[in-house]
Specification:
Largest sheet: 2 strands, antiparallel
Shape: elongated
Radius of gyration: 23 Å
Order of helices and strands: HHHEEH
Structural class: alpha+beta
């Protein structure tokens, strides 16, 4: 049996442009993407990003114990990377300040 699939806005728009005159007769089963590519909550963001790049996905379903628990989007990944870079920048600035204070003491 079919375990389901995903239909995105892009899939629907693509089908509309292929055949706009019979669009009202289009069945979801015709455009559904299956098998579903997904990740789990334990997947790190680098691995999730690699999956999204490899499969050309903008969103990645998150599944735990065969149950859908959420969607990871490109925006989620960008926000995570941005937060990480901000944290690293603060840490580097803190280290730099400590080094500068130590250098002034040594003078």
């Amino acid at each position: 049996g079919n375990n389901g699939g995903i239909v995105t806005t892009k899939d629907i728009v693509d089908e509309f442009y292929k055949n706009p005159y019979n669009f009202d007769k289009l069945k979801v089963g015709y455009i559904v993407k299956s098998p579903v590519v997904f990740t789990t909550p334990g997947c790190n963001i680098i691995e999730a990003n690699d999956i999204m790049i490899e499969k050309n996905l903008r969103r990645l379903p998150v599944v735990l114990n065969k149950k859908f628990v959420g969607v990871l989007s490109q925006a989620d990944l960008l926000n995570s990377i941005y937060s990480f870079l901000c944290d690293i920048t603060k840490k580097v600035e803190g280290i730099k300040s400590k080094l500068e204070r130590n250098e002034k003491r040594d003078d």
